Structures are given as structure tokens and as C-alpha cells.
Automatic annotation (TrEMBL):
Compositional bias of kind Basic and acidic residues: 408-420
Active-site residues from the entry: 278, 358
Cofactor: Zn(2+)
Lineage: Archaea, Methanobacteriati, Methanobacteriota, Stenosarchaea group, Halobacteria
Gene3D superfamilies per the UniProt record, alphabetical: Metalloproteases ('zincins'), catalytic domain
Protein name: STE24 endopeptidase
Family per record: Belongs to the peptidase M48 family.
Example of a GO MF term: metal ion binding
One GO BP annotation of this record: CAAX-box protein processing
Species: Halorientalis regularis
């Protein structure tokens, strides 16, 4: 009876969370349609999206495919767990007579199954949705090559971590603390290795060569009092028509990356504003701050995971051997919805950092260029920039583009009037 109740609660938690986020998506789509209708003139003139209905259609089909994938994935997971397949596989693994070997096979299997379940949806997204809307640049062969490489990389990263955590469980008295330390160390290591080792497996990164763009980049860094050669152009156009820019890493491994699609689609002043925005994350130490925030959240997760495994309640919903990797897996499934439901906390922090970065971009370049860059990004990516407030709370780690455009223009006007967005006495040169 207790197992039945636990199973019902387990399913209710996972399905209820998925239903909540599906509801948010439906509310968001309806809100976008109403707002685009009311703001059609602004969308056309400000963002340069000549066909707002096309952007809405892209949003609808992308949301639909993503939602369907989430539900199918959940359905497959529950079927495997409650059909007896999961318990049989776990029981078979115990015949290996080695907890670490069992864990390696189990974790590798989970990664592979998850990747395989996502294949049909990834194919539809790439060769139907992205193709129809003019974003796909990948051939089937390149897609397959990327999928295989991503699977290998994911397995190579996740399996050793899973084995290490199980080893902690079986040998370290306070294993959640050891697992937490490993997780934080992995985040730091991944932040360093990703731009140098992993990303180059998929894209080419070329330092900006001499020319007008390099001169413009140097002007931004000179204005900021920085000097670096860690600005790269990435050949994103080999796979997608979307445009973007991002900052990654810290220390010697930190770099700013500009998509070649962004470089080709923006004027120099707009690119300078994007670069200034990314540079602000560097100067203000946002990467380190996010690592600290992630470490705090992970501490809560591992404390909760340790309590769940120690109590044995995670073994109640599903008939399976009570091995450490089974307990950790089921515990992670219980905590995953809670992480999704607390995402507004992380988003709140990110929103503050993004607003600070926009303010710095206005300070170093100008508001008109930053507003133009934001409009170009929205148009190039067929973005519908009017999220429902609830959807925004749970999904947006950047302010909506209309808000950002209004704000950078307001900051530019205030700057022209001699006002400053920075508090008195603050030092704009501090950073990592």
C-alpha cells in the first residue's frame, strides 16, 4: 500500500510539473498573439519583422514540438519505470558484482536512451521546423556527425561523475558534501574547458583579423580600459541561420564569441554595443558570481538528495534493487521538478546582470546602437518579444527585448543629460 501511494505521488509530481509548464506555454502563445496584434506597427517598424504572423507561427510550432518532446520523454520514462523494465535491468546489472562497474553501465545506458528518445524530435526541429523557416544549414550527414559526437562527449563527462558520486556514497560518511565539492569543481573545470576543448569539436573559432571590425573591437576595449585578443568569430552559419554572441570562461580561458551570422547581419556600431554588453559580464565578474549561486543551489540539492537516499523513500515508488545508483537516479527525478519550479530565483539574478550589462553597453557605446542591435537580433531570430508574465518568470533569464530597448534609450537620454545609472561611489572598473 505504501509503495502504491509513493508511486502515485511520484507520478503526480512529475506529470503535474510538466502540466504546469505546458499551461505556461499555452498562456504564453495566446498572450503573444494578442500583444503582436496590438503592437503590430511597433513590431514591423521597430524590430523590422515584416511578417509578424510568420514569427508567431515559428513560435507556435517550436513550442509545440518542444512540448510534445517533453511529454513523450516523460511517458517513456514512466513506462520504463513502472513496466518492470527498469527493475529487471537494474537487477541484471547487480550480476556484475562491482558497484562502480554497475554504475558506469547504468549511467551510460541512461545517457544513451535519453539521446535516442530525442532523435526524432531533433530531426523534426532541424529538418522540418528550422528548414521551413530558413534557419537550418546542416546536412543529414553533419547532423549525424554532431549527434554522435555529442553523445560521446556527454557519456565521457557524465559517466565518470556518476561513478565518482556512487563511490562517495559507499565510502565517504558525509557523501553529499564530497559530491557537492565534485559538482562545483566540475562546473569550474567545464567553464574553462568548454571554450577551449569542447566547442572547437563542433565549430571553428577564428580570432578577429585586422580590418574595420577589429579596429571597432579595439575601440570598445580601449574605452573599457581592457586589452585582450580573446574575441573570436564562430562559423555558426555552417549549422544555423540564427545569430547570437556570448561570453564564456574566466581567467586565461575567457573569451567573447561572435556568430559569423551576427557579424554579417549587423552594422559595426551595433556589433560594438553587443561586444560591450558581453564585456560587462567579464568586468563585473558575473561568471564567478553565477558559479557561487550555482554552488549554493547545488548544496541544497545534495542535502536533499542525501536525505532522500538515506531515508529510503526514493525506493518505494518503483520495484528495483536498492543500489546506490538506483537511489540517486530516482532521487534526481524527484528533485528535477523542484529545480524547474525554483528557476525564477536563478532568472532573477541573471536579469539583474543582463540589465547591468546593457547599462554598461550604453555607457561605452550608445543607446541607439544597442537598441538597433537588439532589434536586429529579434528580427534575425524571428523572436516574438512579448512573453506572458508568468512564462517570463519561469523561462526568461534576459529581460524581454521591448523592455531592453526602452531602457537603453532611457539610459542614453539620461547620460546625455549628465545623469548616471551607476550608484555614487561605485567603481566601474572592478571585475574578475
Amino acid at each position: 500500500m505504501l509503495s502504491l501511494v509513493a508511486g502515485v505521488l511520484f507520478v503526480a509530481l512529475l506529470a503535474g510539473t510538466e502540466a504546469f509548464f505546458t499551461l505556461l506555454s499555452v498562456l504564453n502563445l495566446r498572450h503573444q498573439e494578442r500583444t503582436v496584434e496590438a503592437e503590430r506597427e511597433w513590431v514591423v517598424e521597430e524590430l523590422g519583422i515584416d511578417d509578424p504572423e510568420r514569427a508567431l507561427a515559428y513560435e507556435r510550432v517550436s513550442t509545440g514540438v518542444g512540448t510534445l518532446q517533453s511529454w513523450v520523454t516523460l511517458g517513456v520514462l514512466l513506462l520504463v519505470l513502472f513496466s518492470g523494465v527498469f527493475g529487471e535491468v537494474a537487477a541484471t546489472l547487480t550480476g556484475l558484482d562491482s558497484a562502480l562497474l554497475e554504475t558506469a553501465v547504468f549511467v551510460g545506458g541512461v545517457v544513451l536512451v535519453a539521446r535516442l528518445v530525442g532523435v526524432p524530435f531533433d530531426l523534426v526541429k532541424t529538418f522540418v521546423v528550422e528548414e521551413v523557416y530558413g534557419f537550418n544549414e546542416r546536412s543529414l550527414g553533419l547532423w549525424l556527425r554532431d549527434w554522435l559526437l555529442q553523445t560521446v562527449v556527454s557519456t565521457a563527462l557524465v559517466v565518470p561523475l556518476g561513478v565518482a558520486v556512487v563511490w562517495f556514497v559507499t565510502t565517504v560518511p558525509v557523501w553529499p558534501a564530497a559530491a557537492w565539492a565534485l559538482a562545483v569543481g566540475t562546473i569550474i573545470a567545464f567553464t574553462v574547458l568548454k571554450p577551449r576543448v569542447i566547442d572547437p569539436l563542433f565549430y571553428d573559432f577564428e580570432p578577429l583579423g585586422d580590418g574595420d571590425l577589429k579596429t571597432a573591437v579595439d575601440e570598445v576595449f580601449d574605452a573599457a580600459g581592457y586589452r585582450t585578443e580573446q574575441v573570436y568569430e564562430m562559423n555558426a552559419s555552417t549549422r544555423t541561420g540564427h545569430s547570437n554572441a556570448y561570453f564564456v570562461g574566466f581567467g586565461p580561458a575567457k573569451r567573447v564569441v561572435l556568430y559569423d551570422t551576427l557579424v554579417d547581419g549587423m552594422d559595426t556600431a551595433a556589433i560594438q554595443s553587443v561586444l560591450a554588453h558581453e564585456l560587462a559580464h567579464w568586468r563585473e565578474g558575473h561568471i564567478w558570481k553565477f558559479v557561487g549561486f550555482a554552488a549554493l543551489r547545488l548544496a541544497v540539492v545534495f542535502v536533499a538528495l542525501g536525505a532522500l537516499v538515506a531515508s529510503g523513500v526514493v525506493y518505494l515508488p518503483v520495484a528495483a534493487p536498492q543500489t546506490p545508483y538506483v537511489g540517486l537516479f530516482l532521487g534526481a527525478l524527484v528533485l528535477a521538478p523542484l529545480n524547474r519550479l525554483t528557476s525564477p530565483l536563478e532568472n532573477y539574478v541573471s536579469l539583474q546582470y543582463e540589465r547591468d550589462a546593457d547599462a554598461y553597453a550604453v555607457e561605452v557605446t550608445d543607446g541607439a546602437a544597442m537598441a538597433r542591435a537588439l532589434s536586429t537580433l529579434a528580427a534575425d531570430n524571428l523572436s516574438v518579444p512579448f512573453p506572458h508574465p508568468w512564462y517570463e518568470t519561469f523561462h526568461y533569464d534576459h529581460p524581454p527585448i521591448p523592455e531592453r530597448i526602452r531602457r537603453v534609450r532611457d539610459l542614453a537620454d539620461r547620460s546625455a543629460d549628465g545623469q548616471s545609472d551607476r550608484p555614487p561611489g561605485s567603481d566601474p572598473s572592478t571585475g574578475d
